[in-house]
Amino acid sequence: MDDPAAIQNSRAGDREAFRHLVERYQREAVGHAVAILGNREDALDAVQEAFIDAFQALDRFDLSRRFYPWFYTILRNCCYKLAASRKKRETSSIDKLEILAPAPGVTSEEMLLLERALLELSPQERELLTLKHLDGLSYEELAERLDVPQGTVMSRLYHARKHLR
Amino acid sequence: MKKEVTCENVCMAAMARADSAQTAALPPAEIEAHLARCAHCRREMAQLEAVSTLLDAQERSLHSENLWAEIENRLPAPAVAREKLPVSHPLILLGLSLVAYRLVELFPDRSPGWWFKLVPLLLAVAAFVYLRENPFKINAELRLEGE
Question: Which site among B7, B9, B23 would you substitute to test the A interface, given the most A Cβ atoms closer than 10 Å to its Cβ?
């Protein structure tokens, strides 16, 4: 079942159709939520919340657009709402990778250092850097995804990289 | 407006250029000229490019949880979509009002008064206001080929 058909059927109350959407996008959504929130448990909560909100808002979805960018807006709202209610974790206690995957040629200590450095950033900076470097989004796509002008993307990316340095 | 050439603006524009971004930043010649004479910016650029290269080599961690069972339990009952009556369309309402006006007008002895003469004017104003909202989503920018 393709996305427009799944969405149309979900609008009519077909839960199986919505299941297609959840199973198609949950992996990507959890990856994005982990990058914003910095931990898996909160990310799973945010993704669940986002899919429930999306189900209720499907009537407002424009079928000529792609589902995931629309859903991403809902997801990041859920993530930032959750982030505001959670205390920042002590990054030195983090002992496993949640944002990054182990990479060949890089030791696990180096990967952990990079993960901890990412976790020291603000959720907004982490979101931007991971969308840019892990997903390879262009400035234009970032501007559209985050609903900000390209000049803002340029400036935020510069400051995020500077903080990570 | 021309952007001021400061170290920060130069590094920002140079990084955007390195990312192949099409942003209106500083002209390449100004970036090059500044980098050629500013050791601080050259160091800064080298560090930022190293961060960028390091991040480009990473991948997202894969999470394979299936969340459907939890989500399904929390989904609200489907709302039954209310079928809109076609009569609720504003243009149909306007049409019906005009027909009703005409029917009343056919009986001059039952005319409700002078204000009744204003009804067509009010309906015309209502139609104008409604059509100004572009309800049929007509794109005024479209041009025929060769026009």
Answer: B23
CB-nearest to B61 from A22, A31, A158 is: A31
Write down the pLDDT at residue B147. 44
Residue by residue, DSSP assigns B34-71 as HHHH-HHHHHHHHHHHHHHHHHHT--BPP-----HHHH
User: Which residues contact residue A74 at a Cβ distance below 8 angstroms, ignoring those fewer than 6 apart?
Assistant: A50, A53, A54, A57
**pTM (two decimals):** 0.71
Domain boundaries, chain A: 1-87
Count other Cβ atoms within 10 Å, centred on residue B143: 8
Q: What is A1-87's CATH number, 1.10.287.110, 3.90.226.10, 1.10.1740.10, 3.40.50.10350?
A: 1.10.1740.10
Look up the ipTM and state it: 0.83
Nearest to B55 among A15, A97, A129 (CB): A129
Query: In the structure encoding, which two tokens stand for residue B123, read together?
Result: 């309906």
Question: Given a cut of 70, is residue B132 above it in pLDDT?
Answer: yes
